[in-house]
Design goal:
Rossmann fold; alpha/beta; 2 domains; elongated; OB fold (Dihydrolipoamide Acetyltransferase, E2P); five-stranded antiparallel sheet; 33% helix
Length: 248
């Protein structure tokens, strides 16, 4: 049974034997987990979404050569925070683990103690992620990860919460954009228009012709016509510089 403390794990390994080996270690840890297994990087990448997994075990030599490193690069382009661990039979790509911010570099056969340590770290990380509780249509209250929110858009009497991993959620009529703005950390959240609040982490660029933010995962957010585009360009650039510094 899945709970809020259930870890979502992806295992990307070259053989069924190695997959079963890791699954067995995960079961022995005693930490509730939901595990998805892949024997090639293409199948994994086709289903991958930001915030879908808490941990990814990535075999460096999946599909031969170093396809696991390439898959990890594609993961990091979308998800900067997912816990990533390389599994390998060689120390040849140790430096890649630092570049891609892999938390562990596990030599096969992977030790049970290392797997349990990794799961415990991911569980702590999961419990400390920032969320906002929002009343949705039908009166249900839901905690939504701040890092998953692309933008908020006022539409009539309700607000659309556009998320990356779980799609669009509509709030109840009692929710006001002004009230949401007060609860959100600034930055990365920015009120750019009376009907829009954006997450700067999910901005692709500013479209000067439409006077709007273009979001990385689809959609646009209008910019207040009374404010200069240069002001928002400077805000976005400063945030990206600060973000790059923290991730370095």
């Amino acid at each position: 049974m899945e709970t809020e403390n259930t870890l979502k794990i992806a295992i990307c390994e070259d053989t069924r034997i190695h997959i079963e080996y890791l699954v067995n270690h995960i079961k022995k840890s005693g930490i509730p987990s939901e595990v998805s297994c892949f024997e090639n990087s293409e199948d994994f990448l086709q289903t991958f979404q930001i915030n879908k997994y808490d941990i990814i075990f990535m075999d460096i030599y999946m599909d031969g050569e170093a396809a696991g490193v390439k898959a990890a690069e594609m993961v990091r382009e979308q998800d900067k925070t997912v816990t990533l661990a390389f599994t390998t039979t060689s120390l040849e790509h140790t430096l890649e683990s630092y570049r891609l911010k892999a938390i562990m570099y596990l030599e096969k056969p992977v030790k049970e103690s290392d797997v349990k340590e990794l799961l415990e770290l991911a569980l702590i990380k999961r419990k400390t992620r920032e969320v906002i509780e929002i009343s949705l249509e039908g009166g249900k209250k839901e905690e939504i990860l701040l890092e998953d929110i692309s933008f908020f858009e006022q539409k009539g009497n309700t607000i659309e919460v556009v998320t990356v991993a779980t799609g669009i959620k509509r709030t109840s009529r009692s929710v006001k954009l002004d009230d949401l703005e007060k609860k959100l950390p600034k930055p990365p959240f920015l009120r750019c228009h009376r009907s829009f609040i954006i997450n700067l982490n999910h901005v692709r660029n500013i479209d000067k012709e439409t006077h709007s933010f273009t979001m990385q995962h689809g959609g646009r957010a209008d910019i207040n016509q009374r404010r200069k585009l240069k002001e928002f360009e400077d805000t976005l650039q400063l945030w990206m510089i600060e973000k790059a510094g923290r991730e370095a």
